[in-house]
Amino acid sequence: MGKRVAVVLAGCGVYDGSEIHEASAVLVHLSREGAQAEVFAPNISQMHVVDHVKGQPTPEQRNVLVESARIARGNIKDLAQLDVKGLDALIIPGGFGVAKNLSTWATQGKNCSVCREVEEVLRAFHAAQKPIGLCCISPVLAAKLFPGCEVTVGHDTECEKWPYAKTAESMRELGCKHVNSHVTEIHVDPRNRLVTTSAFMCNAPIHEIHDGIGNMVKEVVRLA
C-alpha cells in the first residue's frame, strides 16, 4: 500500500489562494512516488478575491473549499474531516492564500494567527511525529507554531532573484532557524520532521521550482 498523504489547499490562484503550479507539482510527484494524495481545504471565506489579470482585489466573495476543489478536480474534503490517524504525512503548497486564508501573515507578519483548523491539523501531525512538507510561503506556519524549528524559504538577502527574502528575518524573530538554500534544494529538520523548499519564493524557471518540490515530496514520502 502506498503512503496516504494529506494535501491542504488554500484556494485557487497565486494571489488569493494556493499557487496552482505548486499544488499540481505536489500531486504529480506524490503520484510518481506511489503515494495517495487526499486533498483538504478549510470551509471558510477567502480574505478577498484578486483579479489575476489586473493584480487588484475585487468586491467578489469566494469560499476556500469551493475554490480549492478546482485544483482537486472535485475530489476534496472539508479540512474539519481530516483524521490524522489514517494518514502518513501532510503537505501544504504555497501561494498567498496561505498568508491570507490559512493565516493572517499577509497583514500581521510574525504577529499573525493561524486558522484554527489548520493549526489543529499541523499540531496533530507534529505530535504524531508524522512528516510535514511545506513550500514557498507555507513554512511560516511552522515558524509560528513550532518555535525553534528549522526551515527554508530560500535566501535571506533580497534581490531580483529572491524578492521575498525578508520573510526569513521575520521567521527568525519567531525563534526559528532559517537555512539558506537554492530553489531545487530542500531543508530537513529531523527533530520536528519538517521538509521545506522555497518554490516561488525564488524568481526561477518553473522546471527548477517543480524539481525542488519533487525533492521535498520524495523526502516526505521517505520519512513517512
TrEMBL record:
Superkingdom in the source lineage: Eukaryota
NCBIfam families, alphabetized: PRK11780.1
Protein name, entry field: GAL3A protein
